[in-house]
Amino acid sequence: MILYIARHGESLGNTGENNSVDPELSEKGKTQASLLGKRMEKEKIDCIISSPLIRAVETAVATAELKNMPIEIWPLLFEVGTESSFKGQGIDNLKKIYNNLLCYDDGIEYPMCLGNENKEIAYQRAKEVIERIRKRFDDNATVMIVAHGTFNNYLINAAFGFPVRDDFNFCQENTGLNCIKFIKDGIDKVKAEFTNDYSHLCI
């Protein structure tokens, strides 16, 4: 199974123009998302999954529109450090950005807010995302996740079973793309094809 993990494009929060919990993409961020979409248009993708935060959804849309695919919204993908009481925009408001959105439903009710979360809890959340991806999709599937810089670091560490360390992280630039392969070859193997690749921006 192939798992692509992408960071959202530059947001108005990144530029300092909007320091709210849920800023939209900047014009530069929209261009970055479009370039990522053109790159991913060439790839086989079976499912696109996004954080509920607007900057991630807008980034995912650029790929979903080109591939004519729905986007699944996973509350588990909120950025680390999101205000504990923030519940997101809600699926109806997000559908104003892209109508073909689905709220992840596996029969378990997930809170649309994080509550108080420390590093250990955030890492457990990342592990749960990876476990659910691996359980749900078969060996030939390709899945794309669009989320956030800090949480993507947790996701990559969780995929490899690495502990999250204060002195090391996987750098995640805007629309930086990571490719992780889960291989069954007698024993389960996890392979990093590449991390934080933003060559699609170098045009």
- Could you state the order of secondary-structure elements as H and E? EHHEHEHEHEHEE
Which second-level CATH architecture applies? 3-Layer(aba) Sandwich
Task: Tell me the overall shape.
Answer: globular
The side-by-side strand order for the widest beta sheet comes to: 4-3-2-5-1-6-7
Mean pLDDT level: 93
Strand content: 15-25%
Helix content: 25-40%
Topology-level CATH name: Rossmann fold
The separation of the N and C termini measures 30 Å
Q: What is the SS-derived class?
A: alpha/beta
Radius of gyration: 16 Å
CATH superfamily: Phosphoglycerate mutase-like
> How many independent structural domains?
1
Question: What characterizes the major β-sheet?
Answer: 7 strands, mixed
- Quaternary organization: single chain
- CATH C-level class: Alpha Beta
Total of helices? 6
Low-confidence stretches: none
Number of strands: 7
Q: Mind explaining what this structure looks like?
A:
This protein is an alpha/beta fold and 203 residues long. The protein has a single domain (2-201), classed as Phosphoglycerate mutase-like (Rossmann fold, 3-Layer(aba) Sandwich). The chain is 33% helix and 21% strand. It has 6 helices and 7 strands, in the order βααβαβαβαβαββ. The chain has helices spanning 12-15, 27-41, 54-67, 91-94, 119-136, 149-160; strands at 2-7, 47-50, 71-73, 101-103, 142-147, 177-185, 187-197. Strands 4-3-2-5-1-6-7 form a 7-stranded mixed β-sheet, sandwiched between helices. Strand 2, helix 3 and strand 3 (71-73) form a beta-alpha-beta unit. The two termini are 30 Å apart. The relative contact order is 0.21. The model has no long low-confidence stretch (mean pLDDT 93).
